[in-house]
Amino acid sequence: MAVDKIIVLFPISPMTKGRPVSWNIFGKLDPGAWTQLVELDARGRLSLPSAVRSRLAWFDSIEGGLLATIDTGHVELSSWSDFGPRVLESVKERIGHVPLQSKGQLAVAAMDRYMRLSVEKPARIVLPLDLRHHLGCLEVSVARVVVLDGTLTLWSEANWCQDRAKRLTLLTG
Asked: For residue 5, what are the CA distances in angstroms to 9, 10, 104, 160?
């Protein structure tokens, strides 16, 4: 009994990490908007693609890391040197005006809301365990990266997909 075999040949080309920005032609519609699902490495670091970095004028000049502002299902990232000291002072001021028995609760609320992140070269963000858990990256090692009007946000892919219908109504009217 003869067995037919199908052989498929693929041209050999060098594999490179990442992909050119041109892979998503809709990215050209607005130079300030981009979204992409990004894998975390085994150490919980997220490497920002060049398409993301090119849309964030402030990212290349960050000093002192990033301020993570944590919301339900997503995290907004901004320059620590631009926003971190102000947020820290604001929280310190609030703690100074609450009764002694409430200071600890306010401090825990601030720890639950804000985090300082380090950035390694080249554009690799170290996501602590708490943040990876919040973004659902412990079960699935990916995060949705969104740039919109100079703002960098990381989303849990599950939460991003839940809001998909709302985004699609923008296209369909």
From this structure: 13, 16, 70, 43
